[in-house]
Amino acid sequence: MTLSEVRSRFLTFYKARGHVEIPSAPIRPDNDPTTLFTSSGMQPLVPYLLGEEHPAGTRLVDAQTCFRGQDIEEVGDNRHTTFFEMLGNWSLGDYFREEQLPWVFEFLTSKEEGLGLDPEKLYVTVFSGDESTGIGADMESVALWQKLFEEKSIEAKFSSIGSEEEGYKKGMQGSRIFAYDAKKNWWSRAGVPNNMPPGEPGGPDSELFYDFGLPHDPSWGAECHPNCDCGRFVEIGNSVFMQFKKEEDGSFSQLPKKNVDFGGGLERLVAATLGDPDVFLIDVFEKARRVLEEKTGKTYGATEEDLRSFRIILDHTRAAFFMLASDIKPSNTEAGYILRRLLRRAIREVDRLGIKDAVLVEIAHGFAELYKDQYPWVADALPLIEEGLSAEERKFRNTLTTGLKEFEKLAAKGDITGENAFILFSSFGFPFELTQELAKERGLTLLETDFKSAMEAHQSQSRAGAAQKFAGGLADHAEQTVRYHTTHHILLKALQMVLGEEVFQRGSNITSERLRIDFSSPGKMSDEQKAEVERIVNDIIYQDLPVTRTVMPREEAEKLGAQMEFGVKYPDTVSVYSVGPAEASAENPRIPEAFSLEFCGGPHVANTSEIHTGGTRFKILKEEAVASGIRRIKAVLV
Question: I want to staple 389 with a disulfide (CB 3.0 to 4.6 A). Which of 30, 295, 360, 594 is the partner?
Answer without folding.
Answer: 360
